[in-house]
Write a structure and sequence with these properties.
GO cellular component, one term: nucleoplasm
Structural class: alpha+beta
Radius of gyration: 15 Å
Number of helices: 2
Protein name: RRM domain-containing protein
Order of helices and strands: EHEEHEEE
Helix content: 10-25%
Distance between the termini: 26 Å
Organism: Gasterosteus aculeatus aculeatus (three-spined stickleback)
Pfam families: RRM_1
Largest sheet: 4 strands, antiparallel
Domain RRM: 12-78
Strand order of the largest sheet: 2-3-1-6
Length: 116
């Protein structure tokens, strides 16, 4: 049911900027034992963002299928999007994500594009 056989990780997107890691742990902790949770940007980020993304790794892969049922559940002020995430495709549990483009405003035209 998880979509990716054997994965224990879900990606939760469309999160309100007001959401904290503790709130995510409380909500998704009801669905299974959480091994690790990463919220980007983190609660202590110096800049404000319009939305956040969260990765949750469960101890039991069967919790992934259950967590997907929270898709379209309104949490704070937005509908959650919960999808399984292949564990081998992300190194987010070993190091934080880094931006793909300039982190400072540039002068003149920016020729690079952000990869999706």
């Amino acid at each position: 049911m998880s979509g990716i056989p054997g994965t224990a990780v879900v990606q939760v997107t469309n999160l309100s900027s007001a959401v904290s890691g503790e709130q995510m742990r409380t909500l998704f902790g009801f669905l299974g034992d959480i091994e690790e949770l990463r919220l980007y940007p983190p609660d202590n980020a110096p800049l404000s963002f319009s939305s956040k993304v969260c990765y949750i790794k469960y101890r039991d892969p069967s919790s992934v299928g259950v967590a997907q049922h929270l898709t379209n559940t309104v949490f704070v002020d937005r509908a959650l999007i919960v999808v399984p995430c292949a564990e081998g495709d992300q190194a987010l549990f070993s190091k934080p994500l880094s931006p793909i483009g300039p982190t400072q405003p540039s002068r003149g035209n920016v020729t690079g594009r952000i990869a999706c």
